[in-house]
Amino acid sequence: MQLSSLLFLLIFFILFWPLYRWHRSRASLAPAVFAGLTLGVLFGGLLQVARGWGVVPAELLPWISMVGDSYVNLLHLLVMPLVLISILAAVVKVSHTQALGKISVSVLAVLLGTTAIAALIGVAMALLFDLSAAGLVEGAREAARVEVLNERIGRVTGLSLPEILTSFVPKNIFFDLSGARDTSVIAVVIFAVLLGVAALAVRREFPQEGAEIESFVHVAQVWVMKLVRLIMAFTPYGVMALVAGLIAKSSWADILNLFNFVVASFAAIALMFLVHGLLLLVNGISPLRYFSKVWPVLVFAFSSRSSAATIPLNVETQVEALRNSPAIANFSASFGATIGQNGCAGIYPAMLAVMVALPMGVDVLDPVWLATLVAVVVISSFGIAGVGGGATFAALVVLPAMGLPVTIAALLISVEPLIDMARTALNVNGAMTAGTLTQRWLGREVPGPEIIEG
After folding, report:
1. What is the pLDDT of residues 400-426, one digit of tens each?
2. From CA 213, how far away is CA 186, in angstroms rounded?
3. CA distances, 33 to each of 37, 135, 299, 303, 370 (Å)
4. What is the spatial distance between Cα 167 and Cα 156, in angstroms, rounded to a whole number?
5. pTM for the complete prediction?
6. Degrees (nearest 5) of the Cα angle 143, 146, 149?
7. How is residue 159 annotated by DSSP?
8. Distance CA 390, CA 369 (A)
9. Residue 436: how many CB atoms within 10 A of its CB?
10. Distance (Å, rounded) from C-alpha 71 to C-alpha 81?
C-alpha cells in the first residue's frame, strides 16, 4: 500500500474517535447516526478528490468495506432470531387469533396499495421527464452489462405466481433459519405464527404448561432484544463506513450519462414519501413527528441498501418510538422487506416499462395497458421475495409479462447503487407506514408495546 493511501486509511480510523465521543455524549442514537453519515460523505468525497494526490482508493476500500460489511453481517445475524422470537412472543400474548389475520390483511393492503400508487408515479415521472430507451445503447460497456443481466435472468426464468407462493411455506425450518432461501424470512414468519398458535392451544388445554411456555418465550425475547441493542450501538460506525465506500466508488460519468433517469427516479421516490406522509396525515398521525422518529432507520436503509438488514432497527423503532404493537411491528417489517416494496417493485419496473414501450409505439396512457401494468407490478411484488436481488429482478419479471424486451435493465446497472439507496429507504418507510397505519386502525384489538427493559 502506498504511503498516501496508508495515511488516508489512518485518518479514516482516527475519525471513529470523535464519532465515539459524540455517540457517548448523546442519549439518542439519531445524532450519532447523522454524524456518521456526514463523516462518511465527507471522507468518500475526499477520496474522490485524492485520486490526483497519488491515493489509490482500491487499496483503501477493502478496509473500509470490512467495517461496513461486518456491521451489515451482524444485522443479518439478528434477522432470523429476532423475527422468530418477536413474532412468537407477539402471538403468544394475543388473546384472539383473529387479530393476527386482521394484522396480516391490513399490513398487506397498505404495502400492495402503496405499490400500485408507486407504479403510477413511476409512469408519470417517466412521461414528465420524457424518458425513453431509444438511443441509450453504449457500445463497449454494453457486453459486460448484458452479461450481468443474463445471470440475473437465469434466476427468474420459469417462476410462476403459484410457485412463488408455495416457496413461502417452510419445508425445513433449520434450513430457513440459516437464510438459505430468498423467501426464508417469510417462511420463518409463518413458522413462528404456527408455533405461537400451537402455544395458544396448549394454554387453553393445559394452563400450567401454557404459562411455562409464555414465560420461556418472554425470557428469550428479553435475551434477543439485549443482543439487538448491543449491535445497534455500532450503527453510527457502520453507516460511516458504508457511505464512505459508496461515495468513493460512485461512477460520476455513468451518473451524468443517465442524469435524467437519476433525477426522475429521485423525484418519484420523493413523491412517494409525500404519499406516505399524506396517508399518515389523513389517519390523524403527524408526518413531522413520524419522520422525526424514523429517520435514523431511513439513514441506515439508505446506506446499507438492504431492507432485510434493516429489519432489527425497523422493529425496534416501531415498538419503542412509534409505540406500535410488537406483533404489528414484526409483521410489517418482515413483510415489507420481501413484499410490496414501493421503490424496487413499484416505481422502478413501471418507469422501465414506459421507457421501453414508448419507442415501440405503445400508447402508455391507454387505460387498459396502464391498468394491466399496475396489476402486473402489484402481483410481481410478491415475486421479488421469490428471487431476491431487488429492482433489477422486479424489472425482469414485469417487462416480459408486459411483452417488452429486458435489455434496458442492463443499461441502468451502472447507476443502480446510487438510486437503490433511496429506493431501499422508501421500501423500509413503506413497511413502517404500513405498521403505523395498522396500529391506528387496530389499536383497540392489538394494544401497544410492553417495553422490555435493557
Report:
1. 778 777 666 655 655 666 788 889 899
2. 23
3. 6, 41, 8, 11, 41
4. 13
5. 0.72
6. 155
7. -
8. 24
9. 26
10. 17
For 124-257, where are the E strands, in sequence order? Answer: none
Cβ within 8 Å of residue 137, ≥6 positions away: 411
Contact between 369 and 217 under an 8 Å Cβ cutoff? The reply is no
Interaxial angle between packed helices 367-387 and 98-128, expressed in degrees from 0 to 180 and rounded to the nearest 10: 120
Distance CA 140, CA 385 (A): 33
Residue 1 is placed in which grid cell? 500500500
The residue type of 133 is A
Q: How many residues does the chain have?
A: 454
Q: Give 116-146 pLDDT, tens digit per residue.
A: 999 999 999 999 988 877 655 444 344 444 4
C-alpha cell at 4: 498516501
Q: Which residues contact 401 (CB under 8 A, 6 or more apart)?
A: 376, 380
The radius of gyration of the chain's CA atoms, rounded to the nearest angstrom, is 22
Q: Which three cell numbers stand for residue 71?
A: 456491521
Question: Do 261 and 122 meet the contact criterion of CB atoms below 8 Å apart?
Answer: no
